[in-house]
Inverse folding.
């Protein structure tokens, strides 16, 4: 290193001392600041919260529904099972009655929905001593099984090798003679079970809803049970007392958010709507149009439009819309007054059979008012079993005797029995005071009502149209009876006290369709409100023409009473004819002259309401004979082939 002069050395040492002094001051400041920060952090930080020890939750395994009816019967000591195929609830009701009957003969029965069980187990029923399978099977549409019996029907068709030789069975069929395929499902089940080796222990019963279905069932049932006793060597116990299926529980302290207020399935489903929408989860559709269709006359024919925007509901022309009506509040209040009860008590009706899949007869917990308004049919004439069970609550022996006679199939009982709802029976028999919980157990469920959709989704994708006539008539006793659904719909104003009126609804698919090829010609025959599906067809054919598609001939036959009163959709039909959507519009007004003129004068069709489908078919047989040069047998075969190919379709309402 080079030597420095003293002056330079002194200057350097002085600078180093100053720097040392400066660094010492900075260090002290930094250390102090750092210490302060640490002290602040230590003094102010939150103490770490102890980590809680979570106990392992005992989550119950999801309940799996028992699909083995054999195991359930063994577990509960039952030897009779009654399967039902039911679309409107009548088949299920009959099945419940038969299963309860078994107790009177020292046997135990259960009603069962075939959709919920493995029907392949029928071959195992012989494992249960003195076992019997009863089938209450309704026919739906054109000879089809009901929705809940479809899988069972498919199973019967597909299993030719099934051995049912150990199965004892009988069938009661529910149908309507006005339909082409009368009781087809019941007849098929009866025949097919025999083909697979099962033993029929009593003849097939045929119930006709066009006549008196209840009477047909009671007559069959009265002969059926003696045959069962003879087959199994048992005797009636002679116990004619009432057999309760449910027990009532009153809720005095319950969260009202847990109480059903009219929902069909999920609790609060009307408040929080979630698709998909179906029979157990209907959509609340706002009413956007409700107008009277007829210009004059005593009847009220109406056109409603339901808004389905945002529901993701899709429909096709020819489909049906199902609506869930409610009973008239005045009738509900009257029923409460007659029975002297508080309708706003919250209750549950709980099944006494804890193993039953059906825990309650309707959604519970709920109030009596809600049950009588939304869930129970209080306007239908009670069936004989209801009359019989209610008879015990009449304090006047004469009333009790008359009730029992009305419940029987005797000629004397038929004379006494006048068709009337439960309210009128209670009015006419002041001594009859049944407990309201037992009455609620016995009354049938209020069913959805179906209407042919009167619109096309091509033209109205967010709207469903209904065409209906309000049902109202005077009875033999001078009272006025009103149809539940049509009067309820009539009062569904577009806005009610500032609120939109809504209708709980869903879509039921139909086989009633326009031809796949738009060029195929179509003949449509629809008197009165039977025009409904054809309005959808006409709209669709018009839409196709607007799209530039070639459309075949479209011929409409329509009949009503008076041109100036009930010529439904006159403007729309005449406009469709004017624009060429309708090739021909043929109309008959039956009461606009001295002698009635019916559609028969126009297209050889007799306009008898209950036999409309058969009469139309007969007219086509005649036309085919005449123009096709065929015999009656050949004409019949030809028309039936048209049906098989889907070229002849019917949408029949009885």
């Amino acid at each position: 290193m080079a030597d420095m002069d003293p002056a330079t050395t002194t200057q350097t040492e002085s600078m180093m001392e100053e720097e040392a002094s400066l660094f010492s001051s900075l260090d002290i400041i930094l250390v102090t600041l750092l210490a302060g920060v640490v002290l602040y952090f230590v003094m102010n930080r939150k103490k770490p919260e102890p980590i809680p020890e979570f106990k392992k939750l005992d989550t119950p395994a999801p309940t799996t529904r028992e699909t083995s009816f054999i195991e359930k019967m063994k577990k509960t000591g039952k030897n009779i099972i009654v399967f039902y195929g039911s679309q409107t609830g009548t088949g299920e009701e009959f099945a419940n009655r038969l299963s309860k009957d078994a107790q009177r003969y020292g046997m135990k029965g259960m009603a069962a929905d075939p959709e919920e069980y493995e029907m392949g187990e029928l071959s195992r029923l012989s494992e249960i001593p003195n076992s019997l399978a009863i089938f209450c099977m309704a026919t739906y549409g054109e000879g089809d099984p009901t929705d809940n019996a479809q899988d069972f029907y498919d199973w019967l068709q597909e299993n030719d090798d099934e051995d049912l030789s150990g199965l004892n069975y009988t069938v009661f069929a529910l149908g309507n003679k006005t339909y082409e395929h009368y009781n087809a499902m019941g007849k098929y089940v009866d025949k097919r079970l025999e083909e697979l080796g099962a033993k029929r222990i009593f003849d097939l019963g045929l119930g006709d809803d066009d006549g008196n279905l209840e009477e047909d069932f009671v007559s069959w049932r009265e002969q059926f049970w003696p045959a069962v006793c003879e087959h199994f060597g048992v005797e009636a116990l002679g116990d004619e007392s009432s057999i309760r299926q449910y027990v009532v529980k009153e809720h005095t302290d319950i969260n009202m958010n847990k109480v059903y207020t009219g929902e069909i399935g999920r609790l609060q489903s009307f408040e929080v709507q979630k698709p998909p929408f179906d029979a157990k989860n209907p959509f609340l559709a706002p009413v956007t149009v409700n107008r009277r269709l007829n210009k004059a006359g005593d009847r009220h024919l109406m056109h409603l439009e339901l808004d389905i925007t945002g529901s993701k509901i899709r429909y096709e022309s020819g489909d049906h819309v199902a609506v869930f009506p409610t009973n008239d509040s005045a009738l509900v209040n009257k029923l409460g007054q007659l029975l002297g009860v508080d309708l706003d008590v919250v209750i549950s009706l709980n099944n006494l059979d804890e193993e039953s899949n059906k825990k309650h007869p309707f959604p519970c917990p709920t109030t009596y008012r809600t049950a009588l308004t939304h869930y129970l049919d209080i306007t239908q004439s009670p069936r004989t079993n209801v009359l019989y069970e209610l008879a015990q609550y009449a304090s006047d022996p004469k009333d009790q005797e008359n009730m029992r006679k009305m419940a029987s199939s005797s000629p004397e009982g038929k004379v006494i029995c006048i068709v009337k709802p439960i309210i009128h029976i209670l009015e006419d028999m002041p001594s009859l005071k049944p407990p309201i919980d037992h009455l609620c157990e016995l009354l049938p469920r209020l069913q959805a009502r179906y209407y042919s959709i009167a619109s096309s989704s091509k033209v109205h994708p967010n709207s469903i149209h209904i065409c209906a006539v309000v049902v109202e008539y005077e009875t033999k006793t001078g009272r006025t009876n009103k149809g539940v659904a049509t009067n309820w719909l009539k009062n569904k104003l577009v806005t009610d006290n500032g609120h939109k009126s809504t209708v709980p609804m869903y879509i039921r698919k139909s086989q009633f369709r326009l031809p796949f090829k738009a060029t195929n010609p179509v003949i449509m025959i629809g008197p009165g409100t039977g025009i409904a599906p054809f309005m959808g067809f006409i709209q669709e054919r018009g839409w196709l023409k607007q799209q530039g598609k070639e459309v075949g001939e479209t011929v409409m036959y329509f009949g009503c009473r008076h041109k100036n009163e009930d010529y439904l959709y006159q403007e729309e039909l005449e406009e469709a004819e004017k624009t060429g959507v309708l090739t021909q519009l043929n109309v008959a007004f039956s009461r606009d002259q001295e002698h009635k003129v019916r559609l028969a004068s126009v297209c050889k069709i007799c306009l008898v309401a209950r036999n409309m489908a058969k009469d139309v078919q007969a007219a086509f047989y005649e036309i085919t004979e005449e123009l096709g040069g065929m015999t009656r047998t050949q004409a019949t075969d030809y028309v039936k082939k048209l049906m098989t190919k889907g070229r002849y379709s019917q949408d029949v309402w009885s």
In short: The mean pLDDT is 86. The longest strand covers residues 283-292. The CA atoms of residues 58 and 64 lie 17 Å apart.
